[in-house]
Amino acid sequence: MSDDSSMSENNKVDTRSISLASNNVPFRTRARTIDHLGRGQIADAPTAVSELWKNAWDAYATQVSLNIFDGTPVIAAIFDDGIGMSAEDFIEKWLVIGTESKIDGPSTAPPVDFVGPRRERQGEKGIGRLSAAFLAPATLVLSQQADGPISAVLVDWRLFENPFLSLDQITLPVRTFEDWAAIVDGLQSMADVVIANLGKRDASGAFSLKPEWQRYADTESESYGQTTAGSVLEFWRSMPVSQRHLEEWPVFADLAKHGTALFLLGAHHELSVWLNSAHDDEEAKKVKDRLKDILTGFTDTLSPSPVAFEYEVLAYRGDVPRRILASSDVFDLKDFQELEHSVEGAFDEVGIFRGTVKAFGEELGERIIPPPRPLPVARSDRPGPFAFAIGTFEQIEASSTHSAQRHKDLVELVDRYGGVRVYRDGLRIMPYGSAEADFFSLEETRQKHAGRYFWAHRRSFGRLAFTRAANPALRDKAGREGLVENRASRELRLLVQALLIKLARDYFGTDAPERAERIAETQKRNMKGKKAADQARKRRRNEFRAYLNDATKRMPQLAERAESISVRLGDPNQQRTKEAVAAMRAEVEQAREELTALTPLDVPNTLGDAEDRYRAFRDALDEARDLILLSDETLRGLEAGVGAATPREIVSAAQARHREALDKLLDNYQAEIREGIRSITSAWTSNLADDRSRFERATAPLIRKMSAETDLGDLLSLLESVRRELEVEFNDRYRPITRNIVTISEGIDADTALTTIDEDREELERRVRDLNAVAQLGITVEIIGHELEALDSEVSRNLDRLPEASKSTDEFRRALDAHRALTEKLRFLSPLQLAGARLRETITGKTIADYVRAFFRPIFSDNGITFDSTQAFDAISFTELKSRIFPVFINLVNNSIYWVGRSEDRRIRLDFTDGKIVVGDSGPGVDRDDVRRLFQLFYTRRTSGRGVGLYLARVNLEAGRHTIRYATDDDPQVLSGANFIIEIRGLDSGA
């Protein structure tokens, strides 16, 4: 081709370009825009979930949940009880990107049945719903408004990946269903609409793609080998949503009148990983930790007025849910206010902080701290007013003012809930507060000098809270990963950083004037307190063992004396003269004195190997006491009737005897007090005399060595230093004894107080150990339950696949019966797991009795036990979770089975009388000293028992605000042995 022709061709191109450039044309939107705004703008699955939860908030939901179901494909669902959407809402709002409802202005008014204040919208750009595209390739949304039909929309987000499609070339199905039965049938027809976007089938059944999809498929085949169109067609061969998924939605289960269910079909790996086995790889563990870190503390629990918005995440293996996290699992304001170090207050419009400071558990009052420099003048550059709080504790236990157990608890809590989170209108802004999102650069600052700058990101609890109305310059990034990095957010960060540095310098860090002194005092007090407590505990135990050894040796003599007195008073042949009666009175009074001397004043909670010996002694002492009391009554009658003595003389003589006994007791105490005071006075007088010469002895050598060359200032400083050291030593030595003397003079029983405190501490330590053990038990049951469920499913599937000829044999029937029995036992395990069914049902007494009877039928038969329920019990009814109620009766009856086995009469009865459920048996009953500990975890008198059953019964009932106790004398008792009283809220007696 010649140059002229080339130039001519170029001229044509230029002319065409000029022609196109002179046209007036609009922007055209490709379908891929949706893909970019959805998956392309979201950092990870937890952030996407939080966006959808915020949509539920905007819909005035009070409860929202993420539910992850196993199966193929994995389905996740977000359920809420918000106002719901109609088909018109889907068309005019949900399927319109950047809707006008998101324009700043007055927030939406709450629905009529909503209880609470008007909510500020969390959404800004009208694209939050596109987060669903990150979580799954397809989304089914079902929604119902109060008294309205069920509306639905189905979206396959893969349709928006085709770069050759315009947005208006994709059609999505929106449907309305009048009842739930129509949904299952209607969903597949909605899937057909989705498939029709790709092409259509001809008469032979072959599917032909539309030109745009064929072009895209050709491009994908060259690069990847598989096509988006092929994946979509394969996915929609059947509808993955089933009755199982629908039933967990509270609206479907008739537990809510309105709300929305967003089903995520083919859930993202970051959600499906929760369905894997317990043996996770490192990547799976990090994914799980990330979700917990981001979604825990979704609402501001450190606020004095937290918002009403409950949330939870559940993972389903089969029909059994396992709770991953919930809104109740948080570090709340009460926990925060118990921290030994804390700052709590607010910054105003010009950056001045006003708030309270607490250091080492001591309230230091209000502090007003100005900003390090003036804030910008322009409102758009200012952060606006905001609340701020941060708290922590000393990391070394010996330096902390918290108790050892509380310190241990805080170490565990900070691992789970540590970090300073940021909230707008009560909801968390992601990801601030998570492990890697240190908004205030606390760790970076600490690298300069950890002690001086003090505050650590993951060793602190805190919150920064503001509102959309008062802080318009603080806006979210497009990807929902924090605030836009504008001047307002930078000024906010600088204000907080400057405040923390100043507070660390003044009160908390190594440069703080009083820190070293406070830590030294705390360490000394902790060491001294622990030593004193150990000594007091050891002394009490030794004293009790010494008492028990002595009392056990003396008890037979007292028992013999009490028996002899009783026999002689009951013998009609004994003399009844005044002299004989007086002699018997002397013996009775002597026996009463011995009884008083042997009666223990303080029995430790934990007796260890001495418990059996003490109980045997206690029972013998009670028998002797009863005999002496009966003898005293008999003797009083004889004293009133013998001789010519008048009633006044008899009463006066009795009064004199009692006064003489009390005088003798007081004389003994007076002697002990005098001896104690004499000993204390002698010891402390000697100490004081020695200490008076200490200063002279310490400073005399300094004076002797003084010469003309001695620096007078240095010598005076040395003298003052010696005085101060001795002052500290004397204060530590004499203040405790003076405080104890004052305590005694004011009538306060310090020993009893110390005993009570120490026993409370022992009890708390024991309960913590028990709770740790039961946590391990719960985890073990959870793991075993999951494994057994899988094996049960496998056995059932293979039994069903056996040939019909095999199924007709006796061997098959016996195997099937055994498998069904095992399955029933597995169902009993489910209430012990960490999560259980949530559906409340009407439960009758007859249902409970039949369940117990079927569960224990072989045991009742083999052990000759009669089990029955009264008509009154069978007639009761109430609404509750079966998984909460049935285990209570199973545990109670299981205990009764053990104890009635030690009786000839073996009966167990369920009754309802005086408005109370009674579970009674004919066993030996419960020892009175055991009653107060019956419901403590791991307390048991059974030789092979674990002490878990009654504890779980109490906890299960308390979860529903019901109660259980051992029957008192005022309660109905249906059989002669143990009787347990259960009181159920909302019970209908059927009368």
From TrEMBL:
InterPro entries assigned: DHp, HATPase_C_sf, HATPase_dom, His_kinase_dom
SUPFAM superfamilies associated with the record: ATPase domain of HSP90 chaperone/DNA topoisomerase II/histidine kinase (SSF55874)
Highest taxon of the lineage: Bacteria
Record keywords: ATP-binding, Coiled coil, Nucleotide-binding
GO terms, molecular function: ATP binding
Keyword set includes Nucleotide-binding: yes
Protein name per UniProt: ATP-binding protein
Source organism of this protein record: Nitratireductor arenosus
